[in-house]
Amino acid sequence: MRPPPARWALPLLAMLAWSGTALAQGLSGTVRSAEEGPMGGVLVNARAAGSTITVTVVTDAEGRFAFPAGRLPAGPTELSVRAAGWDLAGPEKVELTAAPVTAALILNPATEPAMQLSNAEWIASLPGGDADNHFLQNCTNCHTLKQPLFSDHDAKEFVEVQLRMASYAQASSLLRPQVLLQDRVANQSAAAQAARRKVFERQAAYLAQHNLWQKEGFDFRLTPFPRPSGRATRMVVTEYDLPETTRQPHDVIVTADGMVWYNSFTEQVLGRLDPKTGETREWMVPTLKPDSPKGSLALRADRDGNLWMGLSYQGGVARFDPRTETFRMYPLPARLNRDSTQTTEV
């Protein structure tokens, strides 16, 4: 199970042209704060009005940033930043033209710094050692640590929450929980299930001690990681929005024609993205087992250009021919196709 972010994007470190669009000569500038002066390692994002593409660069040690010439389209562009513990002083918009444009960005200490922490920063911030909070890494396979830590569950409620989550298929998200048809522990002994509950109780006690149950703020110090420096700042990242926030791309591949193909871990969806324009097109994958969890895992292309997908709990494999835009489905034989059967790889 994975969380739905505000948008799902596909990061590509590639120099791409904006097809059929006037290009800006360049955008550069500085990032500063009253507390630090010039700020290095700040991610600066640029997004043209109405676009589904975001381009990101990073400030150097002197707080300077520069987008490559011809990388952004001309026109109104919104700027945002990513630096844990800091907020942009206000909405920043620039008008990009054929002439170079500069922007001076000012950051203020974040009003809600906890909302900006990554999962790794939460684990580094929480009290106790690895033996106490190692289990939190398992939580992040499905959702961010904001879900349990910003909650007000007590220990008893957390046990029930864990039991409920354990009934979901891996192919679930916060927007699309999918219940398994067969319990994962249906074949376990009573002793094994009792031991499992003890683990849940221990984890529940830890979470209830450190979340917002019976308190309004966190009683431990938030410790963001150092911002990027040196070679880590010399990069350009291009992100592409997908059509729906429920999309969970598990595999992303680039075919010989330069098109980007993706599947959805939680849905019967196959999608194609044009990295030059950001345009997407999607096809619904036929369902083999309507009552079973939906979604696919592996996505591969064969030498003939066909796309193959492992359909997980759907119990089969799909082949898509991009030329005819048709699927051919290959369900498993009935003797192998149980409620717990998964076909993940192809």
Outline the structure in words.
The chain is of the alpha+beta class. It folds into three domains: 27-112 and 227-240, Immunoglobulin-like, CATH 2.60.40.1120; 118-210, no CATH class; 252-336. It has six helices and 18 strands. Strands 1, 2, 5, 7 and 9 form a five-stranded mixed sheet that branches. A five-stranded antiparallel sheet has the order 8-6-3-4-10, with no helix packed on it. It has a four-stranded antiparallel sheet with strand order 11-12-13-14, with no helix packed on it. Residues 1-6 and 11-20 have low confidence and may be disordered. InterPro entries: CarboxyPept-like_regulatory, Vgb, WD40/YVTN_repeat-like_dom_sf.
The H-and-E topology, N to C, reads as EEEEEEEEEHHHHHHEEEEEEEEE
Mean pLDDT: 92
Helical region count? 6
Q: Roughly how much helix do the residues carry, as a percent range?
A: 10-25%
* CATH 4th-level superfamily of the largest domain: Carboxypeptidase-like, regulatory domain
Low-confidence stretches: 1-6, 11-20
Number of domains: 3
